[in-house]
Amino acid sequence: MPLPFPFSAIVGQEEMKLALLIAAVEPAIGGVMVFGDRGTGKSTAVRALAALLPPMEAVIGCPYHCAPDDPSEACQTSLAKLGDGKKKTHKVPVPVVDLPLGATEDRVVGALDLEKALAQGIKAFEPGLLARANRGFLYVDEVNLLEDHLVDLLIDVAASGENVVEREGLSIRHPARFVLIGSGNPEEGELRPQLLDRFGLSVEVSTPTDLALRISVVRRRDAFERDRAAFIAEWQKEDDKVRRRIVAARKRLDTVTVPDAVLERAASLCLSLGTDGLRGELTLMRAARALAALDGDATVGDRHLRRIAAPSLRHRLRRNPLDDAGSTVRVERAVAQLFGA
Amino acid sequence: MSSPDDEFLQARHDDAVSAAALFAVDPASLGGVALRSLPGPARDAWLQLLRGWLPAAAPWRKVPLNIADGRLLGGLDLSATLAAGRPIAERGLLGEADGGVLLLTMAERLSTGTVARIAAVLDDGELRLAREGIVGAVPARLGVVALDESLEPDEALAPALLDRLAFALDFDGLRRIDASNSGIDAEAIAAARVLLPEVRLPEALIDALAHTAIALGIASLRAVWLASRAARIAAALDGRALANEADAAIASRLVLAPRATRLPVNEPQPEQPEEAPSEPGEADAPPPESSSSPDQEQPPQQPHDVDQAMQDVVLAAAAAAIPPNLLAQLKAGGQGGKARASGKSGALQKAATRGRPAGARRGEPRAGQRLAIIDTLRAAAPWQRLRRQELLMRGKGDGSTPRVLVRREDFHVARLEQRRETTTIFVVDASGSSALNRLAEAKGAVELLLADCYVRRDRVAVIGFRGAIAELLLPPTRSLVRAKRSLAGLPGGGGTPLATALDAAIELADAIRRRGETPGIVLMTDGRANIGRDGAPGRAQAEADALAASRRLRASGHATLFVDTSPRPQAAAAKLAGEMAAFYLPLPQADARQLSAAVRAVTPANR
User: Which ipTM score applies to this complex?
Assistant: First the structure.
């Protein structure tokens, strides 16, 4: 696989980068949906993030790379291995798994291992993409063009964090907790509301219109294509900085406190926007906490809420037919009202 | 002796030859060529030319329109797998075309899904695969030649594909392609291929290309980097290791000019940044669209000091190649570029609904679904040995074992195109007599309907009428984004040209029906026509015309809902509804939600 473009060399698109960082710090956020025009660096950013993440500790030989320190979420294989007392973990890169268009269901959920079945007549389970994505990222480009039965499947697994396989005489369940990252262009087809709701954050990217920005995008891209290794080396330092920021934020995350006043603010913001259910508030809180951790703050404050309000809430608004303003504008309006301009 | 027309065709011809040469040097880095042409000697000659210039070993694969995923992407080669006793992957066309060219026939009718698969390969240079026991990435560095045979204005290549192809050629008017005196031959191209990695492109030229793209109203950045690659290839073709202005000019002409959505301002003078905003009435500048044009006169930043002379050369090259009718389109449409782009998406969705085999998916046949026998057998085949063993172990493997052991999980059902697509045409009265707040409700109802379009697979179109005209505000679409955008721009006030509106609705509904889809019309008006068909005011004539149009509508047989939006429902409106055999629904106090419920109950979507 060719070397990816460095994360820190991506020009602009601050909202998307922030959302991806938040998802890297707090996987419970429930995924990021990136809407945008063609050629705005959606795929580039996701692959760049993957290259950036520090490796994680996983049980050796576990197809789902279970975490050694959390037996409650580990699979049967891992539990057995952990029990026998030998050296059992190693560092693996955080998986970023592509769900390509045209994928077939058997490869997504996992199925009988064809090779073993044919050659040896052994019935063995071959894990699919969902297994590989466990504890990592599942990236679906053009998610709005994904076939319906795969969308159903994703909705189900993303909600339960568990993949249940009942086919070909197999009956297997395994952990499948991943950060779902989707991207797509809304002009090519709407996303099903149920799936949209599964995404914690939604960001909108657009092609920069500022000449200076555009020029630096093209120049960097050109430099990258001419000599990938040199370009990556040049940005190594910046990328390291981002990686350290993620690692520090993960450590800090549990100690970040959320004052009651902020909780109240979040609740009234959701109320004034009329978002459905509690999911909006939860996401808002988690995202604000992760943002505070990224910024090195000990407590969540209004400024965190403000920055994260639009990506957390804009896809949860009920469509108000009499209001022609876009969702982003509505969120911003509500924020301005609540927090003062 | 040559007329301007001849000159234009000669330029078109020369562009076609240069594009073929540039593309042949490095197909994958340029993405490809969109070739708008009917089949004919010119197209054949061009393809032959290109093929001759590619390396002899380069694959050349043709993708038929209705290609199935298995053939396009690859999958399990069933017979080889069974023979070998281990899984054998079958390469799809995308993998086979690695290092060569993929030919898309009738590309304007490719489905959105196929386009997305090809686009992903163009972006990554490899094919990511997760199908039928095979997971991984297959190298697929290829260039695409998309043969666009569209005739109708609403047919065109998918924007997602067009954006990724460096060149767009139009062969309209060309009879032949002759490269014999172009000075290019296969050896020159092979030499350029060798030289290409060495070629440097000065940053000032990149800047000039970026600037030109903005001056031409090109939003996508991909255009700029495709142009910079083209410039580099042009230098290599000329045997130089340093690209110069002439190379950038070629790139600008071939890559940027066909994407122009507006003409450059006559005298681009970015060194005086304040100039353009103070002169909004400048002759050729279209009214700035809020989203894309304030950037046009950005003051040059210090690190990006753009060489003015260089920039002029590059911009002039593009401007010279802009098709002559662009100006007319821009003037007529005001926002010509946008309107054209929006028509494409609608046409594309049409392609998605027909022709393409619906395929099969795993599942049991129930509720009338048909079992897909071949797919079921395919699914069962690899497991035969295992299953037989199991039977033996359980002691059931006597002589009565069936030849093929099919289990429940093998069942595949045929995915049929179960329903025809429904398009609901909203005909919205925006005249002064229909109180303005009704307009807001109409907009709301359309948006609500769109919101559950995904589930119902419906499309929506909007015709607005006021003053003397009825116009198609929103061509059939499923996109909420576009619907909102076009509805937001519908103003109110003026007369009520009801007859004209009905004619427009009938025309659109007929067109939809011709495509094999089901139209439904929702007319929202108070029925008080006061502008005749000829656009002249006069209540008597207008009402007569409206009655005539209503009868035409009845004769056409389209399902129609007449929503009377006047505060006090009128007998005249009811009579009109009777004439057009429409459901009559007086809604003096309806809100958008009620309206959408009513529409849902009446339109043929509810079959």
Answer: 0.77
